[in-house]
Design brief:
The protein is of the alpha/beta class and about 425 residues long. It has three domains: about 170 residues, Rossmann fold (3-Layer(aba) Sandwich); about 160 residues, Dihydrodipicolinate Reductase, domain 2 (2-Layer Sandwich), CATH 3.30.360; about 80 residues, Alpha-Beta Plaits, CATH 3.30.70. The chain contains 14 helices and 17 strands. The strands form two sheets. Strands 7, 8, 9, 10, 11, 12, 13, 14, 15, 16 and 17 form an eleven-stranded mixed sheet that branches. The chain starts with a strand and ends with a strand.
Length: about 425
């Protein structure tokens, strides 16, 4: 049979990883796919740039449309960004070409439109490399766990943030110092906003939530918080209480609706996911038949992400002779059977909390605080009073609460911060036991 021709939109780190894997493992891949897979075209920014992969059989161009309009069977979108990527993908779909993309922002923001166009044109859009790099988490949820009713997905899905929090815990470093090290090592961009403020994780969680619960992609509904406000003392106090702080993406189905949230989270240190360190990713899936399953591995890099791209290419090639009506749905559920269950707002979330207060060192202060919490029906699991800060007549106090509606916690914090005896804004971090 003829080889399947592939065109790359972008030939950076991941694109070169894809080419390298296809060349190195060509025989094994063709045995699995049933046909040879060959990169024949690639769009690049700089035609004169030297690249450490063999490109003699690849037609290079600096015009994306040249690839989209060529004779390739599959277009692999690796450009990043959303607008040019969206236009290029939709054009390729209109020309009957299948799509593989590593672009989580593209899928999270424009996926509903792209999947409808693919459905109309009888082509496939595969996006395994868009979430957690080399971890096959999308395939696991969409296919491996298809017999299960999934109740929760929780993941460390941004390696940069995990590296920073690991450095803060292991070496007692400040957020700023750990971030600078991440930038020096190439883990964080010069502008780290997408990573440290949770936007990158929110893109990925949008996708995971949709394939877990069969709802349309709704990036704008994700509650997103970053890690830039995490202080080194919070990391230390969490350790003292038997927890570790991770930047977690959590999506849960509740009777009222779907929670989709990204935020710093205290996790019991005995949990496997609490011991995922450095730039590694991990995703925990809880479901009714299997129970809890954990997926761990590198979340980025040329070959880990390239591995997921090539796996998607093999999947697409395998379906070339399959009736389009019988292919695995893009978002796991049949497109006309997606749920309209609402996505909850943050004040409807329910979880436990870690609170850190800076209080005057005098009698009666904690009585005022606990009264406010009691008024909002917030019960305390544990309370930790630290040594007074020299020369400030101030005492750090750490409180762990039981589960409570976030609206009640918001009210309580607002009232606590109005007390004359509370000397700084209350630091708040959610707590997840992940039982």
């Amino acid at each position: 049979m003829n080889a399947v021709n592939v065109g790359l939109l972008g030939l950076g780190t991941v694109g070169q990883g894809v080419v390298g894997i296809l060349q190195r493992n060509a025989n094994e891949i063709s045995r699995r796919a049933g046909r040879e897979i060959s990169v024949t075209h690639a769009a690049v920014r700089d035609l004169g740039k030297s690249r450490p992969v063999e490109l003699n059989a690849v037609t290079l161009t600096d015009n994306v449309s040249d690839v989209v309009n060529s004779d390739v069977d599959i277009v692999v979108e690796l450009m990043g960004g959303t607008e040019l990527a969206k236009d290029s993908v939709l054009e390729a779909i209109s020309r009957g070409k299948h799509i593989v993309t590593a672009n989580k922002a593209l899928i999270a923001i424009h996926g509903n439109e792209i999947f409808q166009a693919a459905l109309d044109n009888g082509v496939i859009v595969s996006f395994e490399p868009a979430v957690a790099g080399g971890i096959p988490i999308i395939k696991a949820i969409r296919e491996g766990l298809t017999a299960n009713r999934i109740t929760r997905v929780a993941g460390i899905i941004n390696g940069t943030g995990n590296f920073i929090l690991t450095e803060m815990r292991d070496k007692g470093r400040s957020f700023e110092d750990a971030l600078a090290d991440a930038q020096a090592l190439g883990y964080a961009e010069a502008d780290p906003t997408f990573d440290v403020e949770g936007i990158d994780a929110a893109h990925k969680l949008t996708i995971l939530s949709s394939i877990a619960f069969g709802i349309p992609l709704q990036f704008d509904a994700v509650h997103t918080e970053g890690i830039s406000t995490i202080a080194s003392q919070d990391v230390a106090y969490a350790e003292e209480l038997g927890y570790r702080i991770k930047h977690l993406g959590v999506t849960t189905e509740t009777p009222a609706g779907i929670e989709i949230r990204v935020h710093p989270t205290l996790i019991p240190e005995r949990r496997l996911i609490a011991n995922v360190n450095g730039v590694m990713n991990a995703v925990l899936v809880q479901s009714d038949a299997v129970g809890s399953t954990l997926y761990y591995g590198p979340g980025a890099g040329a070959e880990p992400t390239g591995s997921s791209v090539v796996a998607d290419l093999v999947d697409v090639v395998r379906t070339f002779t399959t009736d389009p009506e019988n292919r695995v749905p893009h978002l796991a559920f049949q497109p006309d059977l997606l749920s309209d269950k609402p996505v909850l707002t943050s004040d409807q979330f329910e979880c436990a909390f870690y609170l850190r207060l800076l209080a005057e060192d005098r009698a009666g202060v904690m009585a005022d605080v606990t009264r406010i919490l009691a008024d909002q029906k917030i019960s305390i699991e544990s309370l930790l009073q630290k040594e007074p800060i020299d020369d400030q007549n101030a005492v750090p106090v750490v409180i762990l609460t039981h589960q409570v509606k976030e609206a009640a916690m918001n009210t309580a914090i607002e009232k606590i911060e109005k007390l004359d005896s509370i000397l700084a804004p209350v630091a708040r971090i959610r707590v997840e036991s992940l039982d």
